[in-house]
Amino acid sequence: MDLILKYFPEISYQQQQTLASLKPLYEYWNDRINVISRNDIVHFYERHLLFSLSVSKIISFIPGTRVIDVGTGGGFPGIPLAILFPDTQFTLMDSIAKKTKVVNEIIKASSLQNTVAITSRSEGYHSTFDFILGRAVASLPVFIKQTYHLILPGSLNTLPNGIIYLRGGNDEPWLNNKNYSVREWPLKNWFEGEFFETKKVIHITRHT
User: Fold this and answer.
1) Cα(7)–Cα(190) distance, integer angstroms
2) In whole angstroms, how far apart are CA 111 and each of 54, 79, 115, 188?
3) How does strand 66-70 pair with strand 131-135?
4) Domains and CATH numbers, the chain
């Protein structure tokens, strides 16, 4: 937790306690249902918690904002952000039932009242949200095609409704697509370490 507090000293004591409880919970469940790679569990605070919380460097969700984390896997970035923003409603979606089983157990153990996990594919889901979260779920063009119908038009926050995507690597050619407005923030601007050298948080909206 020292790493988290280094970059987020403002979080409350209760939030610190809840975030600190996540690693032993994931270690317990990962021994039963593998939702995090064995190598990554060693780097849990950096590669899962801190990477997820990086979204808060570009936006502070106002109360009542509705967010869906598509392809949530083990619950990232949704669960850490739900702890950070208790007045925001989070839906965590994955198509693999054993993963959402673990996520729901983590939600229950963490007493998160603002979070629910569902087993579904985004293509067949039709509720709408202010923001879609993704973390290297698929190539961005595929992710947008599969999820953009879930976005509620408009804007309540400092960023317009759209996709917030965590990724690494080089830019893709489609980012110059005239149909979309794209902003990128390199995470090395905020966080130290080799892991964050190529990582970015991206905000995507479609031109109307």
Assistant:
1) 8
2) 22, 11, 9, 32
3) parallel
4) 2-206 (3.40.50.150)
